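PROTEIN DATA CARD
Card holder: Class I SAM-dependent methyltransferase
Chain length: 237
Origin: Maribacter chungangensis
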Amino acid sequence: MEKDILGTALLDFHNGNYAEDIITYSSLDEKDTLPLPYLFRAYAQMPELEKKALALCKGTVLDIGCGAGSHALYLQEQGFDVTCLDQSKGAIAVCKARGIKNLHEGSLLEADLGTFDTLLLLMNGIGIAGQLKHIDLVFNRLKSLLNQNGQILLDSSDIMYMFELDDDGGYWIPEDTPYYGEVRFTMEYKKQKSNEFSWLYLDFNTLQRAADFNGLSCELLFEGNHYEYLARLSLKG
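Structure generated from the sequence above:
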């Protein structure tokens, strides 16, 4: 993203200049709000899915797309060796200001990171793939970051419910959509808009098939009340 909308907003909040939230616009014709206080939530305010994921972390941890660093900060306080990764300069600056020790500014595909026991992708972190056709590239990159017996913990959502029902009782999905979980977003903050970017929501069956194709086992760990789930991926054999 050329404009660091997220990082600018996070820095404002951390520095006591909170006056508004981030507005998101999506290709699903939805306008929504991303409340900045939620991105700084303490462990007690985290949903059950996130608490479950944090409890399952082991060894060295890479928090991919760390944002304001709330998950990494909790893990660090519990004694974990955790590294934050985000391509937002502002997000990394906030993580540093909050006391997180190990930081890396850059993209998942390009950063020189080493290997880890746990790769953490929360808040639909697998969405960074953007489109389903890129999932093999992302999975192969994640595999290269895993130690033997390591794990990938990720959550996503099946967003089929967001599409309208047709006369036959099925869901109406536009014909030009390769996969219904591919969504295009724009973010706005203080009258500045980001460039449009793609984000991927994966239903569990699609995630499982893609993982299997890429030599990863896939285990469903938790299902929420609103189509969200937590999964664990690990190297086969």
